[in-house]
Amino acid sequence: MTSVEFSYSLNQLSGVLKPFALKLTRDLDDANDLLQDTMVKAYTNQDKFAEGTNMKAWLYTIMKNTFITNYQKMVRRATFVDTTDNLHFINSSGALIENSAYGDFAMEDIFEAIERLDEIFSTPFLLYYRGFKYHEIADRLNIPIGTVKNRIHIARKYLKEDLTVYKHIN
């Protein structure tokens, strides 16, 4: 294939590539840039195109790989290297420092609420909380599995009512 034929084929396929670029980038300007980058790479790598193969598929592959490479570069730019002695990689979107005091208070309130439950509800609930399966709890307490499910459901309902103070906290 001559250079003129190759150029003509690329120009014919550029219209087909634009919707794919828009789908990838979701922005018209970025799609135009991606299309241009794809065409430049195709022209510069003309010698790598095997005549008789599907040029459209070849161009789609170039576009997809270019998009992925550009995305990876963008992600790398959003991360910076801390050059202190610790040499940590820090995400530039900001750091959040949280202590566990709030969680400790919440867990205390939860366990106090569980202690206020009747034993017929708290025992199956605590076993389920510790990771036991319904059938294991039923075997251990010698009660039907339906009763186990019902008691855990009632325990959750009581706890939900008792712990309404935590309803709007994320």
How is this structure best described in words?
The chain has seven helices and two strands. The chain is elongated. The N and C termini lie far apart (63 Å). The mean pLDDT is 84. It has 170 residues and is mainly α. The protein has helices at residues 3-25, 28-44, 55-77, 101-116, 119-129, 134-141, 145-162; strands spanning 79-81, 89-91. The protein has a two-stranded antiparallel ribbon. The longest helix is centred in the first third of the chain and has 23 residues, at 3-25. It has two domains: 3-79, Rna Polymerase Sigma Factor, Chain: A (Orthogonal Bundle); 101-166, Winged helix-like DNA-binding domain superfamily/Winged helix DNA-binding domain (Arc Repressor Mutant, subunit A, Orthogonal Bundle), CATH 1.10.10.10. A hairpin with a 7-residue loop joins strand 1 and strand 2. 68% of the residues lie in helices and 4% in strands.
CATH architectural designation of the largest domain: Orthogonal Bundle
Characterize the largest beta sheet: strand count, sense, and whether it forms a barrel.
2 strands, antiparallel
Q: What does the overall shape look like?
A: elongated
CATH class designation of the largest domain: Mainly Alpha
Strand proportion, as a percent range, falls in under 5%
Give, in spatial order, the strands making up the sheet with the most strands.
1-2
Structural class: mainly alpha
The sequence of SSEs as H and E is: HHHEEHHHH
pLDDT under 50 segments (min length 5)?
none
CATH superfamily of the largest domain: RNA polymerase sigma factor, region 2, helix turn helix motif
Give the overall pLDDT as a whole number. 84
N/C terminus separation: 63 Å
